[in-house]
Structure formats: structure tokens, C-alpha cells
Amino acid sequence: MNSLKSYDVKGIDCPMCAKDVEAALREVPGLEHSRLNFAAGKIMIDPKQVDTARATLKTVESDADIRDSAEDVQKSRNPRIRIPWTIPISAALWVVGMAVSVWIPEAIWLRRALYLTAYGIAGRRVVFGAFRNLFRGRVVDELFLMTLATAGAFVIGEWTEAVAVMLFYSVGEALQEGAVSRSRAAIRDTMSLRVETARLVDGETVRLISPDDVNIGQVIEIRPGELVPLDGTVIRGESWMNTSALTGESVPRRYAPGDEVSAGYVNDDGVVRLRVSRIASESAISRIKRLLEEASSRKSPTENVLSRFAAVYTPVVVVLALALTTLLPVFFNLTLAESAYRAMVLLVISCPCALVVSVPLAYFAGLGRASKDKVLLRGGDVLDSLNRLDTIVFDKTGTLTEGNFRVTALHPAKGWDDGALLGQAAAILSLSHHPIAKSVRDAWDGPLEVDMLDSYREIKGMGVAAREGRRVLLAGSADHLEQHGIQVPEIQGYGSVVHVAGDGVFIGSIFLNDAVKPGAAEAIRSLKKEGITRTAMFTGDLESRGKQVAEELGIQEVKAGLLPDGKLAALEAMVDDPDRKGGVGFIGDGLNDAPVIIRADVGMAMGRSGIDLAIESADAVFMDDDPARIPELLRTARFTHRIVVGNIVFALAVKVGFMIAGALGAAPMWLAVIGDVGVSLAAVLNSLRILRRT
Length: 694
Description:
Radius of gyration: 34 Å
């Protein structure tokens, strides 16, 4: 064995501990006898193995980075409210200035220097922001009001209060920023699930590349502790995966070959390989991120009204302050300095920041709360629309029921037996992705000859038409077969039915049923407690099955046997009903639900089982497909509305009271700023109650 020499590895920034790195090195042929001094950045190895060691260390570092991304996702973020260092320094200078005015009253310039320094430190962002906005055309805003009020206080000799106003305002702004960061954390957790690297399987090697460079059909590898970077199907290996970041399930799920895996899952124990089914920009987590980004930018009607109100309100207040300054000395026994002081108090207390901060924050907290509850909303306007709902319409399959159909009865025509009927249906439906087609194939335990079909066409809402040589094969609804001239006999059965025909001859009927989702009945009962007065269910299923599910769940109305255009027409009749008082919401998951989701006042989709088009069309997406999330979302929307209204009434009432007191000379400037900051903080803290709602 060659002697070991010391080499510098300080350039390697590996977050793993020395013991783990050393163990990784020893697994590489030729590096079995390496020794690592991680603290000193030195490694003792055979000189011939330097390049191999460095490559191994870089791979170990990349592995650790991927694991760190997964660990970061599972750590809850609860940012602390931090007070900038400038505030205590400014406060100390302010206190020293007041002490100088008491103990050394003749040191006027020292006192003023201390006050100006304290003011500059505490208010530099406010003053600079006011001038910056002034040059950008925003002539009057809250920064301008604070700068004008404090400058006026300096002019009339109220140096102590000028600094106090700016200091208290800065403290309030810091607390508000911290509170806002807490509300953003609920959404930021979901948006941080994207992985920056993927392990691409290239022949016999595995290399790290960006997920954006991976194409559909390529194979990637995920190791224990790593985040899944792309959507795909497991083709090798088995592992438990933590899906809570997307679905809210606390219990890990086992994934094996054939199972679909979404980006954002955390791989727990095994090495698995996936065949990629979507590019990075279309993965589940990318769609979620787009929804959240859109939610952050879309304003509610209330926010838009307040923005317009603030744009008019602030200039009016400035004009009113000028009127007080000039008119009070004329009509009352006041000096110009006294009237100017009262005008400065009016400017301070009239700052609309309590409204322009707390109301958007309430909507953002509502979005964050919904995100924590595994519901993604497109914007604050959706919360307003949800609050107005009094009617909710449900799709049946996949929304209220599991969507996992199983064959419950076979009715072959004369000359056919059960096995022949099921085998023929499985062959016709061999290329369909519909849940019912999959259930028919699962029930057939014989060989499935996919290549037997020469042509294949799936007709939305009707069924499948295929051709084998000269034989025309049909499977689907009774209307589908009758359109091809085949009479379907009346058969007594229960559940969804697939009629089968071949060469113009009726072969038989297959009945299937799916189970109601756990908790669906309780969700419907809870909706009535949340003010939903009308519930309905639209389904393409048989009327008998639709009524049975509706009775089991307590749904008031059922419209069965509907094709996509029928669902849309039925919903439009509800929306256009002149007697309705509130909005109409619709919840679905399939391709045929997309037009109805778009047309509803609030369109909602099931995110796990839902078709992409339905999810992209929806205002709200339930990531774990749990019906219990629906009343929870309504509670969040209604609670957010109450908080918003409460903030507006409280802020306006307190501000009007302080404005009257200031104009009458009953409120000094320091009390006005405490009132302004206090109202703002109270409104902000009230908004944050949405995140803590139980």
C-alpha cells in the first residue's frame, strides 16, 4: 500500500459531519484507507487517488444539499418579529436629548443635535420613501403624512414630539412587518418545495442535472431523505413517502412499481426510480406554485375599494390640515403655532396605514390559512366570493365518492356468458383512462390483447367506439349504442352501467359501483351550519345511483344522466335564478367538469384525483380530495370577512375620535402617534387571528 499524504480540501463546503464523509470515502475503491481531518480541511490519501477523492466529496456534498432541501421543507417556519438595531439607538439618543433638556437646559444645540440624529436614524426610510414616492408621482401617501407632520413639529419647536412620532411609527412598522412575515410563512412553506437538482439515470450512470432539463419518459432516481423533483411513475424499487406537504396526510404511504408519485413528496427509506410523466413546469408542485403566486397578486374587491379610498382620503386630510392651520386663528383665540400644532396632530392620526395594511393582511392570512388546510386559492377575491355562497353543487364520482369502481353485476345477452362479456368489454376499453374502464380491466383476470384493435375513438360522456378488422365494437351508455342502431334492453340493476355491443349485436351490460368518501356526509351537514341553504349533485350516472348517494349524504337535489353540456345548462339555470340571494359554487374533478367550474361563481376542484384542465380552471383546489375541507374553507372565508369588517369599523371609529380630539386640542401629538400605531397594531394582530383559527 502506498504511503498517505495530506491534501487540502478547504474548497469543499460539505454540510455532512466528518464521520459520514469519511465513511462515504471508504466505500470508493482505492480510498479504503483514507483519513479525513474535516475541521482542518485536510484529507490523508494515496496520492494516486486525489482526483477520485475530490469527485467523491463533491458528490457527497450534492447528496447532502438534496437532503437539506427535504429537511427544510419538513421544518415549520415561524419567523420571529425582529426590531431593527436603529430603533434602540434612536430611542437612546432621544432619551439622552430629553435628559439634556432637563439637566442642561442651556445646551440647546447639543439637545437639537441629539434629536436630529435620533430622528435621522429612526426616520430615514420614511423620509427617503416620501421623497422617492413624490418623484414617482405618488404625491400624497402615509410616508408623506408622517414626514410633513414631523417637519411641522420641528418648525413650531416641538422637537421632542417630532422624534417621538417618528420613533413610535418606526416601531409600529417593524412590528407590522414581522406580523406580515408570519402570515406569509404559511404560503412560503408550500412554495419552497421545488428541488434544484434531479438524478438522471443515463445508462449505467446517474448524474445530477436541473429538473428543467429532464424530459418526459426519462428515468430519475430518488434516494432516502430526498425530495421528489418531478412527477412520475415508479418503475423500480419500493419506499415509504411523506406526502403531507401536498396532501396533508400525516401517515407515510407506500409506493411500488406502477404507482404515481408527485413532485414535493419526501422519500423516506428506499431507493426508487421514476419514469417522468410531466416536465418540471407542469409538475404538481409547479402548478401549486403558480396558483400561490397568482393568489398573492390578485386583490379582493374590498382591497381595491380601500386603495381608491386611500388615494382620495389622504389629499383631503392634507387640505383639511391646511384649513385648520389658517382658519383656527381667524375664528378662535389661537396663535398660528397652536393651530399648526393641531393640524400636525390631525395629519399623524389620519394616516390610513391601519386600513391599507390590516385589510390586505387579513386576506393574505386567509390565503395562508387555506394553504395550511391544504386548499389553494387563486386570490383574496375568492374569499369574498366564498363568503357570498348559499348554494353548492357537487359532481359525484371522484368528488363525493372514491371513484374506485368495482364490478358488482354482469348481465350477458343470450349466447354469451359472464367471462366472455367481461373479456370483450376489457378488450374494447383497453386504451381508455376512464376510472370505469380501469375497473372493468381490473375485474378481468384473463390475458388482455391491446393490439387487437385496429382503430379506437373515445367519445366524451358517451363511451368508446373501436374496430377489430371489420367488426365495430362499442362500450358505454345506452345512448351511445342506440346512436349506432343497437337497441339496449331494459335491465334492472344498481350503479353505473357499461353496455357492450359488437357487430351491431348487443352483448350485455356490466354494473359497477363506487363507495362514498369517508366524512362526506358530515361535510354536507357542516355546510348547512355554515349558511349553505341549497345543495345539489350533478352526475352522468343513472338516476337510481345518483338518488341513492344523495339520500345517503343528505343532498337536497339530484340531476342525473347529464353530459358536459347538460351539467353546464343545469348550473346556468341555477346561476340565472332570479330568486337566489347568494352565489353558486361547484366542485368537481373531471374533464367534463371544467366548463361548469369556470361558469360557477366559485369553481372548485379536487387536486389529487382531478384532471389538469379542471384544476387549472378552478378558483380553489383541494389538495387532499377530502370533502371535510369544503366547510373548513367556508369557515375561513366567513371568519376573514368578519375580521376585515371589524378592522375597518374599528380603525375608522378610533381615527375619527382622535381627529376630533386633535382638532379641539385635546390630544397631544405623542398621543396621536400612539393612537395611530396602536390602531394599526391592533388591526394587524386581529388579522393574524385568521391563521390561529381553530
